[in-house]
Amino acid sequence: MAIPSDMPQGETPDVVTGAGRLTVDLSALRRNYRRLVQAAHGAAVAGIVKADAYGLGAVPVAQTLVREGCTSFFVAQLGEAIALREALGGSAEILVLNGLQPGAEELAYRAGVTPVLNALHQIAAWRRLAHRHGQRLPAVIQLDSGMSRLGLPPEDAAWLAAQSDGLDGLDGLELTLVMSHLACADMPDHPANDAQLNTFREIAGRFPPARRSLANSGGLFLGPDYRFDLVRPGIALYGGAPHPGAEVAIGVGNPMEAVVTVEAPVTQLRTVPAGAGIGYGFTRRAERPMRLATIPVGYADGWHRSQSNCGAALWQGRRLDFIGRVSMDSIILDATHAPDLQPGDMVELIGPGRSLDAVAQDAGTISYEILTSLGSRFQRRFVDPQGARP
Ligand SMILES: *Cc1c(COP(=O)(O)O)cnc(C)c1O
To answer: What distance separates the 2 farthest-apart alpha carbons in the chain?
Structure first.
């Protein structure tokens, strides 16, 4: 959105456009990456930047991580990989988690990105491509160690391992990484973690020596056995708790630092009498005279309707509950306990006093969905208080 350059002084874009403000703290991102490097104890730490880096912005996030020495990036789709390669240039490896669509081989090859090969037919197509170009191509294969989503089922992996010296197997390819993904890594006590670890070890062991990778954010904190050569954190980079359930249940703190702040200005304040209907459908009525504040953020901005009557904003340490339904472009807050709140004051929706995981819990979802739902109307700012450039 273009702001005229001759705006009178003091009129900030946030006030002019009436949108909420989304701040991404790249210094905090950098510190989170360093924390993960420490926690990885020598395993390489890739950056998972799929879905536009969980909604934060894949390019600024990846550029920041490159400067921290990150050399591997994972996205979900080939289109994301191509865009990231154009933006990053350079030599970092860019891997496509969702695999190789039939017919996409040449496009991936030309973009210099590597599909994660999830099925035998994908491996065969990649091998034919290598043959056509007379080149040994890097290959990454994913094994399904129990999640039943992507990757070679154990019987296909066994077949492939048996062929690995012959023409049907990995011939023409250089196996650079064997990976799998955990279904329950956010639940440290879940027995599936051990089971998947054992399955992965056993199947991966049948392939020629290559780097191995099993852990996402949650997996990285499950212990040394899970780290292998490369770990793949996403949500932890962006400040989400790797084990959010444990954080709530037993008070284990989130080791990561908040990266995203979302604030919104108060648009209007009113006092309503007892009995007044509040918002669409009158799902709430004022039990007493109430002071209400309206903010210009709604479900179109990613504050889902499921937060009707259960979300909250924070202002000067005070919790202002969402009251009534979340609408498309606005939310009503109970500001009865904030008599000094004024139009234009900024309330916090995610920030130091209101963690991403707390918001997710109130919304009945996970931090991932909160971040990837953040809408395009926010005034986005990337700040880097400790960095070289903004
Ligand atoms: C999304 C994803 C990750 C990152 O997961 P987080 O839980 O965000 O750390 C890692 N590996 C695979 C295969 C993924 O799909």
So the answer is: 80
Residue 368 CA: which ligand 1 atom is closest?
8
The set of residues, in sequence order, having a beta carbon less than 8 Å from that of 300 and lying 6+ positions away, is 328, 329, 375, 377
| Structure tokens that stand for 85 in this block | 């390669």
Residue 323 structural domain? 260-383
Averaged pLDDT for residues 205-215: 93
The residue out of 250, 273, 295 marking a domain boundary is 250
Whole-angstrom distance, CA of residue 131 vs CA of residue 171: 9
Q: Binding residue per annotation — 147?
A: no
* 145 CA → ligand 1 middle, Å: 15
Whether 388 is covered by a domain: the verdict is no
pLDDT in tens, 242-271: 999 865 554 568 999 999 999 999 999 999
Distance in angstroms (rounded) separating the CA atoms of residues 382 and 390: 7
* Alpha carbon of 332 to ligand 1 centroid (Å): 35
Residue 287 falls within a domain, yes or no?
Answer: yes
**Distance separating alpha carbons of residues 13 and 132, to the nearest angstrom:** 54
Q: What's 285's domain CATH number?
A: 2.40.37.10
Are residues 367 and 318 part of one domain? yes
- Of 54, 238, 280, 299, which residue is the catalytic one? 280
**Rounded to whole angstroms, what are the CA distances from 158 to 127, 144, 155, 161, 164?**
18, 12, 5, 5, 10
66-102 pLDDT, tens digit per residue, is 999 999 999 999 999 999 999 999 889 999 999 999 9
**CATH at 155:** 3.20.20.10
Evaluate whether residue 216 is within a structural domain: yes
**How close is the Cα of 230 to the center of ligand 1, in Å?**
12
In angstroms, the CA 63 to CA 76 distance is 18
- Residue 85 near residue 111 (C-beta atoms within 8 A): yes
The answer to whether the CB of 302 is under 6 A from ligand 1 is no
Task: Specify the pLDDT at position 165.
Answer: 61
Last residue of a domain, one of 185, 215, 250: 250
**Cβ 233 under 6 angstroms from ligand 1:** yes
Asked about 50 being catalytic, the answer comes back as yes
Q: Find out whether the beta carbon of 234 lies less than 6 Å from any atom of ligand 1.
A: yes
Among candidate residues 50, 226, 238, 368, the one labeled active-site is 50
- Continuous H helices in the chain: 13-17, 26-39, 50-54, 58-67, 78-88, 105-111, 120-133, 154-163, 191-204, 217-220, 244-250, 356-363, 367-373
